């Protein structure tokens, strides 16, 4: 345990290997090549990795029970839409079954797969839903066909961190034009695979005592080794307002994040605080029909521009 | 903890109160009145409570983290369809977001709400999906309009057990014509509400030690107090074949179940073992397009008939 907490590499060494890792690496390379190549109007293409949804921690190798983190994935899905609109290419690293871009007002992502959208984009749905459904399908197809959105699903903490490492080490090739928007709710504690019960834990023997190890803090790895020049934004979600800012500042300094977005479970849809080493600015939802993410992505994109400018002197450029 | 383990009532006393309990009780009473009243062809109406999906165990009162049980809810959803087909009225006590009756081949239940099915039942979907989608919507509407299906969602172990108790004490009014088909994956361990962390558990302090209390075995309450005459079928899911039958026999005797359905995580879709005090019969899937639940419900319904006959002398009757 202690070893894993001190040394992230031993976490990876002990983790169950990623399925289809080679196939994913190939898809990722193809996506990065297509989107980072060439000069786009207003400057070279930026690529953001948006992580979204909660990770699970299996309690048994043949998993019946697991610990999960609350996260609808709504923030990550909404942010992905606004990053694409702002001209970013987006790697959407998302929890299987969590909220998907352009599907926030639809029952489910796979919903889309069940429709034919013809020339007149006729969709047989109830009148009241028709407009939003048509728009969602239109925007979704545009993003997919444009090749600027790559969706990558995960479920467990083991899958998530291995995928994040693969993405990060690849994105490092575009230096400061790469961004990490780490909105996923990542487990703080886990049961190392090798010390995990092989079969379903049996009840009947009185209370169950569990010792969970700390998940190594991968933000340091991301910042210092995987993608040292990338613009990194992490999130701090708390339920206790008294410790929120203090925790955000800690994350900012300890992991050298460029920005920490601080929010409370009770109000995260209405208000966030953007924390940098220079300032703290609170963003509030203005009207209920507007996504808070619209304002957030605008500000974060501007900060990213300044950052790129400072490092490469490619200044005064819009993302696309 | 110890108290809660020995005395189920203290579990309920300490549980967070059910939301809209009165509204639910009213819906339940109305459903039971409609479906238990009157003589149906071949005998009086039977009512089964099908429980489905996994329960969650919150680790914090303002829940960010929780322990979940693996269960797609496919078995409960499929069984509900066959119980309805066999003439039962069904109370479908299901995990929010789990697999829903008639939607097993659809992306999501709420999917249905997005369609208009007109006179020609025209639905604008891809040709290949059109038939299954149309059939699903047709069967679903029939069951809902017929008033013989009541869907009741839950998420936490606290909601599940309080709802089960409400249903059971109500169904007891129809004696042996009531059935419980307990397919839900119910947590064995939980954190009592009053001993639960109020805020998000903080990381950084090294490993996390958790003591989980045993959930009181409510099958005894169901059998002995809530619905003493109901026909009770419980499930035993294991990952280790060596202990499966032994665990099933234990459940049968300890909780006086009428039937225990034993299955292994690796093969539960292809094979189950029906365990009674008289016999053990293995049911296997014959062809891949056929639901195992079709055979299961036929056999369970026959056993239910014998049971009713033995108690009330209402014999040789089909469920409807």
Automatic annotation (TrEMBL), chains A, B:
It holds the Pfam family DFP. GO terms for molecular function: phosphopantothenate--cysteine ligase activity. One of its GO terms (biological process) is coenzyme A biosynthetic process. Residues 178-290 form the DNA/pantothenate metabolism flavoprotein C-terminal domain. Gene3D superfamilies: CoaB-like. Keywords: Coenzyme A biosynthesis. It comes from the Eukaryota. InterPro entries: CoaB-like_sf, DNA/pantothenate-metab_flavo_C. Pathway: Cofactor biosynthesis; coenzyme A biosynthesis; CoA from (R)-pantothenate: step 2/5. Belongs to the PPC synthetase family. This is DNA/pantothenate metabolism flavoprotein C-terminal domain-containing protein. The gene is LOC102710850.
């Amino acid at each position: 345990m202690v070893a894993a907490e001190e040394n992230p590499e031993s976490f990876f060494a002990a983790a169950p290997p990623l399925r289809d890792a080679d196939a994913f690496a190939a898809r990722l390379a193809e996506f990065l090549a297509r989107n980072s190549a060439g000069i786009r109007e207003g400057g070279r293409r930026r690529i953001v990795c948006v992580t979204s949804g909660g990770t699970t921690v299996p309690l048994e190798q043949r998993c019946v029970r697991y610990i999960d983190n609350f996260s609808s994935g709504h923030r990550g899905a909404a942010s992905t839409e606004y990053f694409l609109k702002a001209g970013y290419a987006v790697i959407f690293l998302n929890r299987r079954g969590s909220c998907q871009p352009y599907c926030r007002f639809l029952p489910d992502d796979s919903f889309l797969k069940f429709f034919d959208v013809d020339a007149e984009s006729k969709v047989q749905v109830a009148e009241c839903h028709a407009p939003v459904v048509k728009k969602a399908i239109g925007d979704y197809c545009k993003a997919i066909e444009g090749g600027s959105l790559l969706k990558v699903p995960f479920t467990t903490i083991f899958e998530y961190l291995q995928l994040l490492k693969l993405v990060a080490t690849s994105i490092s090739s575009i230096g400061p034009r790469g961004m990490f928007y780490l909105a996923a709710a990542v487990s703080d504690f886990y049961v190392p695979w090798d010390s995990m019960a092989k079969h379903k834990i049996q009840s009947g023997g009185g209370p169950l005592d569990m010792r969970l190890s700390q998940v190594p803090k991968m933000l340091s790895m991301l910042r210092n080794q995987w993608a040292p020049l990338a613009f990194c934004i992490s999130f701090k979600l708390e339920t206790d307002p008294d410790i929120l800012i203090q925790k955000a500042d800690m994350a900012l300094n300890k992991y050298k994040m460029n920005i920490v977005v601080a929010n409370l479970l009770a109000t995260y849809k209405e208000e966030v605080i953007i924390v940098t080493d220079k300032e703290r600015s609170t963003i509030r939802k203005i009207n209920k029909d507007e996504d808070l993410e619209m304002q957030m992505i605008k500000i974060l994109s501007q900060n990213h521009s300044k950052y790129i400018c400072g490092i490469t002197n490619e200044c005064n450029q819009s993302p696309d």
